[in-house]
Known about the structure:
The protein is mainly β. 5% of the residues lie in helices and 38% in strands. It has an eight-stranded antiparallel beta barrel with strand order 1-2-3-4-5-6-7-8. The two termini are 24 Å apart. The C terminus is likely disordered.
Amino acid sequence: GTYVCSAHIGKATENDYHHVKIIPDGRSFRWTNRAGVSWSLTIVSEENLLSVSSDCPYFSQGYTRCRVDTDGGGKIVALYGPFNERYERLEQVSRPRPPLILSSSWKANKS
């Protein structure tokens, strides 16, 4: 899915780091921003948390977990990026894609 950091959109502080795609990558996800910076996110046993890989440029600054907000069906509606900034999902009206879902069966089979 596509996500934006709405705190910066349309403001002087907006840049390519505030526009993100989260793509399934095997048993994990890949966070990639428009600036071309990317890192892996892996489901952990704690609900609504993803583990941030050490290839993330913010990992050494303490960004080691990505909190996730979901709707009642498990669809990711927002993620919290570096500096705890909220990235909200953009609904793609012209080309709908299936939502990313954190399923309990996938969590059980991640090993």
